[in-house]
Structure formats: C-alpha cells, structure tokens
Write a structure and sequence with these properties.
Elements: H1 10-13, H2 19-28, H3 32-64, H4 84-134, H5 137-142, H6 145-195, H7 199-236, H8 238-243, H9 247-300, H10 312-330, H11 332-353, E1 375-383, E2 389-398, E3 403-407, H12 414-421, E4 429-434, E5 437-438, H13 444-450, E6 451-454, H14 465-469, H15 478-487, H16 491-496, H17 514-528, E7 532-536, H18 544-557, E8 562-566, E9 578-583, E10 586-591, H19 593-599, H20 602-610
C-alpha cells in the first residue's frame, strides 16, 4: 500500500555511467545540425555584443581626446577612416550594426537551440515510453505508476530545461568570458589580471558546490517520484477512500510524501543559497576592484606593481565589459544547478531504459500461424521475482474447441496460469504450448493475436465505446463493432445511451457500470476473433440474468474455439469439457462436472456450498 522510501530504479540508475554524455551520444548526435547552427549563431551574436564597448573606448581615445590613433584589433588600418568626423560616423555605424547583428543571430540561435532541445526530448520521451511498453508484467508488479510517470514526465522535462536553458547559457558564458578576456588583455593585460582574479575562486566554489549538490539532487528526484506515486494511488482509489471515510488518512500520507519532497528540496536550496550569492559576490568584487584600481590609475598613475598608462577609453571599455562579465559569471550557479538536476534526471531516464525486458521474442522466434487452438501445460512451475513458487508442476491439455474451466479459492493461482499462456510472464520450468509450439518460441505479437483475453479487472481507455470495442482491431468497421457488442449482450444498453457507440466512457470507463464495462471488454475480445479465448471471471460484475445471456453468447462463441475459463460461479462452467480445481498453485482435482461430483471431493464441497446444500 505504501510507496517505497527509495527510488525503485536505484539499482539501475546507479549503474548508469556518465548519463549526460550518454544523452548526447544517443540523442544529441543525430540532431547535430541544429546544435551546430545554434552554436555558430551564438558565437556571432555574443561577439557582436562585445563590439560596442570596444568601439566606444577607441572612439573616446581617438575622436574625443585625440590621445591615440583610431585602431581596432584584427582590422587593417587602411580600412578605417582618417578624419575625426568619419571616425565618429564609422563608430556610430558599427555600434548600431552590432546591436542589429546581435538581435538577428540571437533569434537564429534561440530557434536552433530550442529545435535541438525539443527534438531530443521528443525522442527521449517516446523511446522511454516504448521501452516501458516492452517491459514484462513483473516490472509493473513491482514498480509504482507514479514513479514511472515521474521519469517520463518530470525527469524528461528537467532534461529539456537543461538542453534549452543551461546549454544556451553555458555557450553564452564561454563565448562571453573568452571574448571579454581577449579584449581586456588587448586593452591592458595588467588590469585584466586584476579583473580576472576572481575566476580561480569561482572555480573552487563551483567544485565545492557540485560535489555536495549531486546526492541532494538524486534524493530530490526520488522524492518527486514518491510524491507522484502517492498522489496517483490516492486519486485512483478515490472511491474507496470516500466509502471508507479515509480522507484524513490519505491526506496524511500525501502530507508525509509532500514533506519529504519539501525537505529534500530545501536541502538543495540551502546549498544553492550559499553558492549563488557567493558567485554573485565574487563577480561583484571583481567589478568593484576593477573600478577602484582603474580609477586610481587614471587619477594618480599606475598603483603598486602595475606599470604604464591607462587611457580613459580603455578604462570605459573595462567598466562596460566587466559589468558584462558579472552577469554571465553570476549565472554559473544556475547552470550548475540545472546541470546537477539534469544529471540526476538523465540517470533515472536511462535507469528505466536499462531495465531488462525478460519476456521478449527469441532471436529465432517464428510466427504462430494456422492456429487450431490446442493448448498444453507441461509440468509448469512459476514464481514471481524474488518470491516462492506460486505454480507447482501443473500439467493439462485442451484440445481444439475444448472448454477448460479453472476453479478454486482466491489466490490459488488461476489467473497466473492464464497469464502464462499469454506470456505475460515466462515459466520457471516446464512449458506452455499452443498447437505444439512453446509460447517462448513464437513471436509475442502473433501469440497474442490468436489468444483473446478478458480480465476480471476490466480496463477501458478514455474515449468512446466504439473506440474501446475496436481497441487492437483499429480498422474494424462500425458494423463489426455492433455485431461484437450484440454477441456480448452490450448492444441494448449502448443503443439506449444518448450518443450510442460515440458515448464517451470517461477515464477508466467511470461513466459505465462494472457490468457494462465487462460487456464492452467481452465485445472487444469477440471482435478480435481469436482461436483461443481466456476469460478470467469475465462476468463477475454482472447480475445473474445478464450473466446467463452473456454465457449463452460465450457458449456460442466458444463452440469452435478453445476456451480457458476462470469462474467463481460454478454454474457457469458445469458444461466445460474439463474442470480443474486449483489450490495452492497445484491441480487438486480434474474431470467433468459429473465426475467431480461423484468423487465427492473439494469440487463437490464448493458446488454444494454455492448450491446452498451445505453451509460454508
């Protein structure tokens, strides 16, 4: 009932090596043109944004004070104007053009970077979902729906933020720091050393933060999954909660999961509140020291060990660029924050992808074709992962067209036996065969195409009745849907609905009664038209009269098909060709209805209890 304290993907997540590197190798490389275009546009935009302070400094020293020649780095002198007026006009034109270039290439960079990020995350989401779909039922027996949703939703979104924002800011930071450093060194290498003196301290602070942040982010992501699981369970079971007057109990459980998330989030934030202000303080100190040393240099000459002169234009350039320095350096905290979050999330995503799918097609699996419907269980033993065996040495045969009934107490293993036929699980020993073919040696798709299954836990998707009836047979005509519904005794109630077969059933079919949902599920199996039918107490939620009508339809349907029927009401299977009494995962008795009554054993006891001949 309760959510586990630790992530159910811990054992797989911990094995993921360099998750973000793996992300780029697996998903970034195929999208490299968008990434490359974005990086080129980013470099052009950021370099263009550095031109105005440089040109302004040169113009001050050359045009306004006349203390230095009009000279720009990497630009031949012959390309530059000679008069003050022309130099002023040229400077104004370059400054204006640089803003235009910055805006245009920032647009191209944003589009390219977002295309890269969202295309990658589209592939990650769909691949993660496809992987989840391929996993066998053992995985879903142990894992929590909210935890899986957290991986597909929250963790994938974290990666999207990283690929979109963090990469964009990282690229901008690299270009800005490299460009500003080059210009500052070009203008005055001594003052540049003073300005850049805070960077080693920032590197040390960043290393300290990353070392301590990683385990905190891992705990936070696990707490998100735990909270999602609790919310999903509580909302899915809201009817039970209300009928049990357990609202306070569920609220307390959600409060506990929410507090764990709050506690782990605050653990991350407390560390961030040391790191982020620390980075901003170091960046601010760098600006203040640059202003103080440069201003002193202009007023009184080179201070201390510094030598030479500092022009007013160079000082203005330093002030503008150092201010530009502060913002990207201060954003390092956000980048690291998003990096650590994405690293934890990518480990969980690849942890899901690395979960082994145990029930898969064998390399030499063949298609199951021309099915007659003969089913055989040969000395089958099965146990769930890390549990004791729940099925012990079960053997029986059902010839084509036979009906085999499985009866016995709840928890005896009847449903598990049926799921082994569908290869929801693989047997530990022995074999389950269809027409002499071990189900492990044929493809899953072909096996499940020829075996129809109606569970006692009827599930309907949010959509119309028609869509649910033809689920799996998506190209079926409306006439075929109606005929299947008639065979399942569903047409009458569907016809009376306002929108008929176009009636929306709601999430999990909540707008229909349990009996109506079961009849829709039976119609779905009928439309599949399989050679083998499995009914796991398929009429458990209908009244006696409806059950009799459905049973007549099922009898007609199973007349030339093999049927494996799990029944609680023994009256529905008394005409079965073979009845198996299952207890504790073993076949305790077998025979026809009359044979078993004559034996006066366990089946006879169950029959007499249900017939009211003896008290239970």
């Amino acid at each position: 009932m309760g959510a586990t304290e630790d992530s159910v993907f811990d054992q797989y997540r911990d094995r993921v090596d360099k998750p973000l590197v793996r992300l780029f190798r697996a998903y970034g490389v195929p999208e490299w043109p968008y990434f490359a275009a974005g990086m080129v546009a980013n470099v052009v935009a950021r370099m263009a944004s550095l031109l105005p302070p440089l040109v302004l400094g040169v113009a001050i020293d050359s045009v306004f004070t006349g203390d230095a020649p009009f000279d720009l780095p990497l630009v031949p002198a012959g390309w530059l104007p000679a008069t003050d007026a022309a130099q002023f006009e040229f400077s104004a034109l370059v400054i204006g053009a640089s803003f235009v270039v910055t805006a245009v290439f920032t647009y191209f960079y944003g589009v390219s970077a977002n295309l890269f990020a969202h295309r990658v995350m589209h592939e990650v989401r769909t691949d993660s979902f496809e992987k989840m779909q391929s996993l066998d039922m053992t995985f879903f027996d142990d894992k929590q729906t909210g935890e899986v949703m957290s991986v597909l939703n929250n963790d994938a979104s974290n990666l999207e933020v990283f690929l979109d924002d963090a990469l964009q800011n990282s690229a901008r930071l690299v270009v800005m720091v490299a460009g500003i450093t080059a210009i500052l060194v070009y203008e005055n290498w001594q003052l540049a050393v003073v300005t850049l003196g805070a960077i080693p301290l920032m590197v040390v602070l960043t290393g300290w933060f990353m070392k301590r942040a990683e385990p905190r982010y891992e705990r936070q992501r696990a707490a998100v999954g735990n909270l999602n699981t609790r919310l999903e369970n509580s909302l899915s079971g809201v009817e039970l909660v209300k009928t049990s007057a357990a609202e306070d109990h569920e609220t307390e459980r959600v409060r506990s999961a929410s507090y764990r998330f709050f506690r782990d989030t605050m653990d991350v934030l407390r560390l961030s509140y040391v790191y982020r202000p620390g980075m901003e303080l170091l960046a601010g100190i760098s600006f203040a020291v640059t202003f103080a040393v440069g201003g002193f240099w202009l007023l009184y000459g080179a201070p201390g060990p510094l030598t030479g002169t500092l022009s007013p234009g160079a000082f203005v350039t330093f002030i503008f660029l150092t201010q530009r320095f502060v913002t990207p350096l201060a954003e390092v905290s956000n980048i690291v924050d998003q990096y650590e979050n994405a690293k934890a999330s990518s480990a969980r995503v690849f942890g899901l992808m690395d979960v082994p799918a145990r029930v898969t097609d064998a390399p030499d699996a063949t298609e199951l074709t021309d099915v007659e419907g003969r089913v055989e269980y040969d000395d089958v033993t099965f146990g769930y992962e890390s549990d004791e065996d729940v099925i012990h040495d079960v053997s029986f045969e059902a010839e084509s067209g036979d009906t085999v009934a499985l009866v016995g107490p709840t928890g005896a293993g009847k449903s598990t036996l049926c799921k082994l036929l569908m290869r929801m699980y693989d047997v530990n020993s022995g074999a389950v065969s269809v027409d002499g073919h071990d189900v492990r040696e044929v493809t899953l798709d072909s096996l499940r195409e020829h075996v129809g299954y109606v569970s006692q836990d009827t599930f309907l998707f949010d959509g119309t009745i028609a869509e649910n009836v033809k689920y799996g047979q998506f190209d079926a005509s409306r006439d075929a849907v109606v005929e299947a519904a008639k065979a399942a005794d569903a047409h009458e109630f569907v016809h009376e609905l306002f929108d008929g077969y176009d009636t929306e059933v709601g999430e999990r079919g909540v707008k229909l009664s349990g009996g109506q949902r079961q009849r829709i599920a039976i119609a779905r199996a009928i439309l599949q038209d399989p050679e083998v039918l499995v009914f796991d107490e398929a009429t458990s939620d209908v009244d006696t009269e409806t059950e009799l009508r459905i049973q007549e339809s099922l009898d007609d349907l199973a007349a030339d098909r093999t049927a494996v029927v799990i029944a609680h009401r023994l009256s529905t299977v008394q005409n079965a060709d073979q009845i198996l009494v299952v207890e504790d995962g073993r076949i305790a008795e077998r025979g026809t209805h009359d044979d078993l009554l004559e034996k006066n054993g366990r089946y006879a006891d169950l029959w007499n209890v249900q017939a009211g001949l003896i008290e239970q």
